[in-house]
Amino acid sequence: MKDVKCVVVGDGNVGKSCLLMCYATNSFSENHIPTIFDNYKATVMVNDIPVELGLWDTAGQEGYDRIRPLSYPQTDVFLSCFSIVCRSSFDNVIHQWIPEIRHHCPRTPIILVGTKLDIRKDNGPENSKHIEKSSDPVSFSEGQSLAKRIEAVKYVECSAKTQEGLQAVFEEAAKAVLFPSKHKPQHRSCILLIHSTDFKTKGTTTPYKSWVTVVISGYFFHKGYL
């Protein structure tokens, strides 16, 4: 049997713990208990190959930023989760979670997971306490576009409550390890561009300071003066 370590990351309260608990134990609870670390095991069949998934739950809160990466070594696949009905968690995939994953595990495959699908489908924004009232739910096409941008292996939407799409999440995670894509995430480096020409202000001998442009990991852009 193939052993696969699967680590789940994402903002707090996007449903990571419910996702794992429901899949591993077939039970669902709406009570949210913030997680530091938790582990589950489950077996999934992929093309008649049994795979034992070691499922690692992590805390998404800012206070655990230094502790969370302790679970990353030897990870075979990441699930980067966001809530379909919380756009800030969607935005944080690109701003926080992918840079963090790629810093520690630059070549490990990622499955992008949109959670709480049932709320978008059935209840709508106006009827749920779990969503941002000022924003629209994330669409499937937006999720696919983000998956392509971050070079995720797959984008999957699911609901732990109804279990719709739940099995597919972990099947895709196992497939990403058993049948790795030939296209690996690009290992982006830090690029430092310095314009060294000094320009003097008219009527003064004081030159303008040289400007510098920095591109870090392909995701960030900063321009400043030396």
Please provide a written account of the structure.
It is a single chain. The chain has helices at residues 16-25, 87-104, 117-123, 140-149, 166-178, and strands at residues 2-10, 37-46, 49-58, 77-83, 110-115, 154-157, 191-195, 211-216, 220-225. With 226 residues, it is α/β, with parallel strands linked by helices. The chain folds into two domains: 2-178, Rossmann fold (3-Layer(aba) Sandwich), CATH 3.40.50.300; 191-225, no CATH class. The protein has a six-stranded mixed sheet with strand order 2-3-1-4-5-6, with helices on both faces. It has a three-stranded antiparallel sheet with strand order 7-8-9, with no helix packed on it. A hairpin with a 3-residue loop joins strand 8 and strand 9.
As a percent range, the share of helical residues equals 25-40%
Multimerization state: single chain
State the total count of DSSP E strands. 9
Q: Determine the CATH topology of the largest domain.
A: Rossmann fold
pLDDT under 50 segments (min length 5)? 189-202, 206-226
Largest sheet, spatial ordering of strands = 2-3-1-4-5-6
What would you call the shape? Answer: globular
Q: What's the N-to-C terminus distance?
A: 57 Å
Overall pLDDT level = 82
Number of helices: 5
Question: Tell me about the biggest sheet?
Answer: 6 strands, mixed
Assign the structural class, choosing from mainly alpha, mainly beta, alpha/beta, alpha+beta, or little secondary structure. Answer: alpha/beta
State the CATH class of the largest domain: Alpha Beta
Indicate how many domains the architecture comprises.
2
CATH H-level superfamily of the largest domain? P-loop containing nucleotide triphosphate hydrolases
Strand content: 25-35%
CATH architecture of the largest domain: 3-Layer(aba) Sandwich
Order of helices and strands: EHEEEHEHHEHEEE
CA gyration radius, whole angstroms: 21 Å
Pfam families: Ras
GO biological process, one term: small GTPase-mediated signal transduction
Protein name: RAC2
Keywords: GTP-binding, Nucleotide-binding
